[in-house]
């Protein structure tokens, strides 16, 4: 058993590219997921009873299914419907799809936390529904749901590791690939763990900083 | 579109695989709970070293993806003198270590909510520290955090799909094998998702009922 980090420096370029792929799939998937989640939450808020019920069923079904299974359904099952996606595209879309229901739940709890009186006041002032959503509800609830969103982002960062199973060349795939080719599991897995720990720590620190900043803004 | 004979033929195989999935996640949850008791009491200990150790455990096992933890155990166990670790043992080890960190965070919240007067009183009655933890604090902490613990079990059952990667014949693995033998990818994976939902949705609803019950009893 030897420990030799030269295998890491020798493959630094490939590992850096893999790191960028991880960041890309994570952030692109999360941003799409956030937008889809907001849409679902808004539809549940303003849509009629049947639509609400339908979305409720959709949310429960997606939340009951493992991320890996969703990935398999889209990437391997998609071609049965002529949906042929590259591994990376499928990965980003699956992260967006999977996270959208969780983000929707977060947004929904945020909407519920804004007092009704404010909506009524806004309506009396002649604000339309979209204006109410954008100008009154969103700014206030964003402060409240910030911790939950940051938490979900860290969860999604870790889920990107699963994309290695459908051959997306992200950190886990590339580093374990180097490990099996050169039989240097200790070094590659150590770097892999440190990379994820760093990403998670940076994200949660940035989240706390943002919470603090927004908190100051609110107190003024 | 949906090939019923294939579906009926696959049911017994999926049933057997379901047992493996349930077995790994329940064992992982049980061992994880034991680890969590240890870690959360370390975090609430007075000694700074113990607190730091507990904190580091949670930081590492919550910060590294479960898949990576699985790979670490699978690849590194033979190098540290644990050759021929069966997939089942590796899977349960990874699930327990990981869920231990998450459950520890839940239990810590429950333990912190208990008034310190209780443990002081028990101490005066001559109870030892472990006895106080196990017989007075833990039952209350579990009761007050039961909804979160059920939620954690749902997450663990979903996470157990990843053990298919280390070659354990769980639900996901068996569905994969079925799909690659007859190329009915979409059908098999749809059935797979359905089975997971059949377990997880009732469990989630049960958790929500517990939560409402708890809120009512506290109100």
From TrEMBL, chain A:
Q: Which organism is it from?
A: Vreelandella neptunia
**Membership in a protein family:** Belongs to the binding-protein-dependent transport system permease family. HisMQ subfamily.
Q: Which Gene3D superfamilies match?
A: MetI-like
Q: Which InterPro entries match?
A: AA_ABC_transptr_permease_3TM, ArtM/GltK/GlnP/TcyL/YhdX-like, MetI-like, MetI-like_sf
Where does it reside? Cell inner membrane; Cell membrane
Q: What is its main location?
A: membrane
Alphabetical keyword list? Amino-acid transport, Cell membrane, Membrane, Transmembrane, Transmembrane helix, Transport
Fetch the NCBIfam families from UniProt. HEQRo_perm_3TM
- In its UniProt entry, what is this protein called? Amino acid ABC transporter permease
Role summary: Part of the binding-protein-dependent transport system for glutamine; probably responsible for the translocation of the substrate across the membrane.
Tell me which domain of life the UniProt entry assigns to the organism this sequence originates from: Bacteria
The lineage, from the top, is: Bacteria, Pseudomonadati, Pseudomonadota, Gammaproteobacteria, Oceanospirillales
Q: Boundaries of each ABC transmembrane type-1 domain copy?
A: 15-204
Topological category with respect to the lipid bilayer: Multi-pass membrane protein
The record's section on PANTHER family has:
GLUTAMINE TRANSPORT SYSTEM PERMEASE PROTEIN GLNP, MEMBRANE COMPONENT OF AMINO ACID ABC TRANSPORTER
Q: Where are the transmembrane segments?
A: 23-46, 53-75, 81-104, 141-166, 178-199
Instruction: Say yes or no: keyword tRNA processing present.
Output: no
Q: Does the keyword Calcium apply?
A: no
Automatic annotation (TrEMBL), chain B:
Q: Keyword check for Acyltransferase, yes or no.
A: no
GO cellular-component term (any): ATP-binding cassette (ABC) transporter complex
Job of this protein: Part of the binding-protein-dependent transport system for glutamine; probably responsible for the translocation of the substrate across the membrane.
What coarse category fits the chief subcellular location reported for this protein?
membrane
Its Gene Ontology biological processes? amino acid transport
CDD domains of this UniProt entry? TM_PBP2 (cd06261)
> Where does this one sit in the cell?
Cell inner membrane; Cell membrane
Concerning its family, UniProt says:
Belongs to the binding-protein-dependent transport system permease family. HisMQ subfamily.
The topology of this chain with respect to the membrane is: Multi-pass membrane protein
The name under which this protein is listed is Amino acid ABC transporter permease
Enumerate the Gene3D superfamilies for this protein: MetI-like (1.10.3720.10)
| NCBIfam families, A to Z | HEQRo_perm_3TM
Domain ABC transmembrane type-1 per the UniProt entry, residue ranges: 14-207
Q: What domain of life does the UniProt record list for this protein's source?
A: Bacteria
Q: Name one GO molecular function term.
A: transmembrane transporter activity
Stored SUPFAM superfamilies: MetI-like (SSF161098)
| Keywords (A to Z) from UniProt | Amino-acid transport, Cell membrane, Membrane, Transmembrane, Transmembrane helix, Transport
What stretches pass through the bilayer? 20-45, 57-76, 88-107, 149-169, 189-207
């Amino acid at each position: 058993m030897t420990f030799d980090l030269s295998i890491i420096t020798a493959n630094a370029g490939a590992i850096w590219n893999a790191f960028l792929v991880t960041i890309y799939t994570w952030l692109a998937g999360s941003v799409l997921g956030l937008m889809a989640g907001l849409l679902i939450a808004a539809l549940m808020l303003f849509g009629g009873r049947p639509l609400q019920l339908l979305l409720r069923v959709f949310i429960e079904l997606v939340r009951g299914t493992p991320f890996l299974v969703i990935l398999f359904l889209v990437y391997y099952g998609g071609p049965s419907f002529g949906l042929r996606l590259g591994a990376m595209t499928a990965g980003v879309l699956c992260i967006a799809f999977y996270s959208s229901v969780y983000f929707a739940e977060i947004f929904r709890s945020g909407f519920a936390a804004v007092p009704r009186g404010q909506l009524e006041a806004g309506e009396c002032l002649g604000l339309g529904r979209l204006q109410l959503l954008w100008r009154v509800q969103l700014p206030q609830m964003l402060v409240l749901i910030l911790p939950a969103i940051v938490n979900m982002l860290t969860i999604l960062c870790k889920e990107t590791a699963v994309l290695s199973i459908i051959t997306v060349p992200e950190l886990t795939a590339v580093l374990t690939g180097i490990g099996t080719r050169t039989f240097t599991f200790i070094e590659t897995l150590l770097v892999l763990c440190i990379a994820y720990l760093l990403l998670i720590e940076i994200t949660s620190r940035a989240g706390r900083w943002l919470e603090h900043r927004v908190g100051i803004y609110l107190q003024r | 579109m949906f090939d019923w004979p294939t579906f009926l033929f696959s049911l017994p195989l999926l049933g057997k695989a379901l047992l493996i999935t349930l077995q790994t996640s329940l064992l992982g949850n049980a061992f994880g709970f034991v680890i969590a008791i240890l870690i959360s009491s370390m975090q609430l200990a007075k000694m700074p070293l113990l607190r730091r150790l507990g904190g580091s455990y949670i930081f590492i096992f919550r910060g590294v993806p479960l898949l990576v933890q699985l790979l670490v155990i699978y690849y590194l166990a033979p190098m540290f003198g644990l050759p021929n670790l069966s997939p089942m043992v590796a899977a349960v080890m990874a699930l327990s270590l990981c869920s231990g960190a998450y459950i520890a965070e839940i239990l810590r919240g429950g333990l912190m909510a208990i008034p310190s007067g209780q443990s002081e009183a028990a101490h005066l009655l001559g109870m030892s520290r472990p006895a106080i933890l196990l017989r007075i604090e833990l039952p209350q902490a579990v009761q007050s955090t039961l909804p979160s613990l059920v939620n954690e079990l749902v997450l663990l059952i979903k996470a157990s799909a990843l053990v298919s990667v280390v070659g354990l014949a769980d639900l996901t693995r068996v569905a994969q094998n079925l799909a690659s033998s007859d190329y009915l990818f979409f059908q098999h994976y749809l059935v797979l998702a359905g089975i997971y939902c059949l377990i997880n949705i009732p469990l989630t609803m049960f958790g929500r009922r517990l939560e409402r019950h708890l809120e009512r009893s506290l109100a």
